Amino acid sequence: MANTVFLPSYTIGGDAYKEINKICTPYGKKAVVIGGKTAISKAKQALVDAIQNTDLEIIDFVWYGGDSTYANINALAENPKFQEADMVFAVGGGRAIDTCKTLCDMKNKPVFSFPTIASNCSPVTAVCVIYDDETHAFKELYFPKKSPIHCFINTQIISEAPYNFIWAGIGDALSKQYEAGFSSRGDELDHTNGLGVQISKNCSTQLIKYGFDALNAVKNHKPNHALEQVVSIIIVSTGLVSVLVMNDYNSCLAHSIYYGCTMLKVCEEKHLHGELVSYGVLILLLMDKQEEEFKKVFNFNKSVNLPTCLKDIDINTEADLNTVLDKTMTTNDIVHVPYKITREMIYDAIMQLEQYNKEHK
């Protein structure tokens, strides 16, 4: 059976939008920009400037609806400007871009991504998170046939976004190296999966090397080499892994713990996805007895104020911890693993991390 892989392509830099005309015009002349309200306000002038004196025309700027739900996707499909456009420019964060990817896959229309924050790899992946129309809770994953045709990563715009987005983005991306390596351990990998796992091996290493300086760049709203390296890891490297490997390798215990934490209202309301995942990375490394890697991530988390203990993520009672563990043990993320993960193993790792914090204040 044929194996077809569409790899993401991207342009990154403070002047990334200068390449829009050259890359997008083969797909038509009319583009509709769809995204979040804040994201559109931040990117609008740069987009307009980039296509001046070209054959491209932006025919409208359209709000995506506020969440990646089928209701919003269907409403956009009926929008006359979407129907008139030759292509879609998806602007914003993960939910806006996932909405556009799903919409364009369903309607067979080219989509280009323009992330305005660096919080995850959605701008280059072929997977979309869909939420329930009414409750806005997670509903399902939608898998487009391919990633966006091209991703334009404007590091100046990203450097001006709220600090917490890239801070949590680093926390989420920290997991890719360890989860992909752990989930695939012992498997005989074909070329595509092997390539994805190989790419993952450098993700955490680069984040730890450049993360502190990149976050300072965001504080000062001045993109630098470190920021470009970190954004490349968050969006591109983790996205390449996601595209290449089977879904079982894309997440593991760190994400299971995240899902467990979302059972607590305080965690869901006060803490970002990547923030909670970064805590789960420490638990995975301790459980798997990767002591040297654990120390590296622990020290890095400390240096940038990512969580290292239960108190940091507002889990303060045994009852709360039990709620988290109950959900953690039900997730599919810990099914395809090299050995059975038990509740006791996770609990012991959590207690070990609590003790380590006391010894390394």
Automatic annotation (TrEMBL):
One of its GO terms (molecular function) is glycerol dehydrogenase (NAD+) activity. Glycerol binds at D172, H255, H273. NAD(+) binds at G94, R95, A96, I97, D98, T116, I117, A118, S119, T125, Y131. Binds 1 zinc ion per subunit. The keyword NAD applies. Gene3D superfamilies: 3.40.50.1970, Dehydroquinate synthase-like - alpha domain. Pathway: Polyol metabolism; glycerol fermentation; glycerone phosphate from glycerol (oxidative route): step 1/2. SUPFAM superfamilies: Dehydroquinate synthase-like. Its EC number is 1.1.1.6. Keywords: Metal-binding, NAD, Oxidoreductase, Zinc. It is an enzyme of class 1 (oxidoreductase). Its cofactor is Zn(2+). It holds the Pfam family Fe-ADH. It comes from the Bacteria. The keyword Lipid metabolism does not apply. It catalyses: glycerol + NAD(+) = dihydroxyacetone + NADH + H(+). Residues 9-150 form the Alcohol dehydrogenase iron-type/glycerol dehydrogenase GldA domain. This is Glycerol dehydrogenase. The gene is gldA.
